[in-house]
Automatic annotation (TrEMBL):
Function comment: Endonuclease that resolves Holliday junction intermediates in genetic recombination. Cleaves mobile four-strand junctions by introducing symmetrical nicks in paired strands. Promotes annealing of linear ssDNA with homologous dsDNA. Required for DNA repair, homologous recombination and chromosome segregation.
InterPro entries linked to this entry: Resolv_RecU, Restrct_endonuc-II-like, tRNA_endonuc-like_dom_sf
Pfam family, one: RecU
Reactions it catalyzes: Endonucleolytic cleavage at a junction such as a reciprocal single-stranded crossover between two homologous DNA duplexes (Holliday junction)
Keyword vocabulary terms for this entry: Cytoplasm, DNA damage, DNA recombination, DNA repair, Endonuclease, Hydrolase, Magnesium, Metal-binding, Nuclease
Annotated positions for site Transition state stabilizer: 107
Cofactor note: Binds 1 Mg(2+) ion per subunit.
Name this polypeptide is given: Holliday junction resolvase RecU
Top-tier EC class: hydrolase
The species this protein was found in: Apilactobacillus nanyangensis
Length: 203
């Protein structure tokens, strides 16, 4: 039976008419990240895997929101019409891994050659400083969206470039520096982003 894609193009199964493989060897499929998922979605899925395997307990921090006005068009539904942030959020994720406190932020950029430091806020960096000063493991997970590449970047290295920009330094970190100082995280099936492999290098 002929199998076709929705656009009408024939699907090549790799088998001939006798159902024998036409390829001389099996080619491992290439993983292309979460196929449209945001970095946050990829990390949430990864954390669910770590939790299910009792490897780590790491969760997305809830955003503190104060609801001001709610409309009730009917008894079974409610629509939030007005709300505001009760306080500035810190980092995106925290939890425990191998008995150590983990705290990190996830950032995406469409820039191919550098990471703009404007992606961070002062209070986020200061929060990480306090965590590091108290023995926590802090870092940023940076995704270059167009290139579909993910890196773990240590908080201590982030602090260096953050402070340097306030003293006449550049407002971004070159990608080749992130490649040199950071840890590249290759996509996998489970977990989607195995970032704890890189964390092992920090412990």
């Amino acid at each position: 039976m002929a199998i076709r894609y929705p656009n009408g193009k024939a699907y090549n199964t790799g088998l001939d008419k006798n159902n024998s493989t036409t390829n001389s060897r099996y080619v491992k499929p290439t993983l292309y990240g979460g196929r449209g998922m945001t970095l946050e979605e990829e990390l949430n899925r990864s954390n669910e895997y770590y939790l299910s395997k009792d490897i780590a307990v790491i969760h997305k921090k809830p955003t503190p929101i104060q609801i001001v006005k709610v409309d009730y068009p009917k008894r079974s539904a409610a629509t939030i019409k007005e709300a505001y942030f009760r306080k500035a959020s810190t980092t995106d994720y925290n939890g425990v891994y191998k008995g150590r406190y983990i705290d990190f932020d996830a950032k995406e950029t469409k820039n191919k050659t550098s990471f703009p430091l404007s992606n961070f806020h002062e209070h986020q960096v200061e929060h990480m400083r306090k965590c590091v000063n108290n023995g926590g493991i802090c870092f940023a997970i940076i995704k270059f969206v167009v290139l579909d590449e993910v890196y773990l970047f240590k908080a201590s290295d982030l602090f260096y470039f953050w402070d340097k920009q306030n003293n006449g330094g550049k407002k971004s970190i070159k990608k080749d520096i992130i490649e040199e100082l950071g840890y590249k995280i290759n996509y996998s099936l489970n977990p989607t982003i195995p970032y704890l492999d890189a964390v092992d290098e920090l412990i």
